[in-house]
């Protein structure tokens, strides 16, 4: 499992864009995790699935509400990562009105979750291999803080806990 001091894995996530601009075409676009995190301070949180109860009602909203505080603390970007395809993450971004506050990154084949060792097997619940729920602070691609939830819990990966660690 990834730990404090480790570099983020060199994998590609996908991000859905509603409009063309800033060098990104409309639709799904690749995001190299290493390149996108190289010179930034990033708050990254991952969760089991878009549109799921805790993820939609608590986890993502907490980061949206606290985005100004994260920016004030020196965070360049907030990333939400989930084992969903880019179209689902794009629809969830519209539904949650993330705008430019949170980057909604799709880990469609669970390559990021697998590379970090933070997978969650929800096969028995009809969801297959997913990401565990966690949060981290990343500086220049290096994990500085990591908060991994116990299965079925939402106690340590919330925005307020991570803000306290900055």
UniProtKB/TrEMBL annotation:
SUPFAM superfamilies the UniProt entry points to: Thioredoxin-like
Presence of keyword Oxidoreductase: yes
EC annotation from Swiss-Prot or TrEMBL: 1.11.1.27
UniProtKB keywords: Antioxidant, Oxidoreductase, Peroxidase, Redox-active center
This protein's record includes keyword Chaperone: no
Bilayer-spanning residue ranges: none
Enzymatic reactions: a hydroperoxide + 2 glutathione = an alcohol + glutathione disulfide + H2O
Boundaries of every Thioredoxin domain copy: 2-166
Role, per record: Thiol-specific peroxidase that catalyzes the reduction of hydrogen peroxide and organic hydroperoxides to water and alcohols, respectively. Plays a role in cell protection against oxidative stress by detoxifying peroxides.
PANTHER family noted in UniProt: PEROXIREDOXIN, PEROXIREDOXIN-5, MITOCHONDRIAL
Family the entry assigns: Belongs to the peroxiredoxin family. Prx5 subfamily.
Stated name of the protein: Glutathione-dependent peroxiredoxin
Source organism: Rhodoferax lithotrophicus
């Amino acid at each position: 499992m990834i730990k404090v001091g480790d570099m983020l894995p060199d994998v590609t996530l996908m991000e859905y864009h509603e409009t063309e601009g800033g060098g990104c075409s409309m639709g799904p676009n690749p995001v190299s995790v290493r390149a996108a995190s190289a010179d930034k301070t990033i708050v990254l949180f991952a969760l089991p699935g878009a549109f799921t109860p805790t993820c939609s009602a608590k986890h993502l909203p907490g980061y949206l509400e606290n985005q100004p505080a994260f920016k004030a603390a020196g965070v360049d970007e907030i990333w939400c990562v989930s084992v969903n395809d880019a179209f689902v993450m794009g629809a969830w971004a519209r539904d949650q009105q993330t705008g430019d506050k949170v980057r909604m990154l799709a880990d469609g084949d669970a390559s990021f979750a697998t590379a970090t060792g933070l997978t969650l097997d929800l096969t028995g619940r009809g969801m297959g291999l997913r990401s565990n729920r966690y949060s981290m602070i990343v500086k220049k691609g290096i994990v500085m803080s990591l908060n991994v939830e116990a299965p079925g819990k939402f106690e340590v990966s919330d925005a307020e806990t991570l803000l306290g660690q900055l």
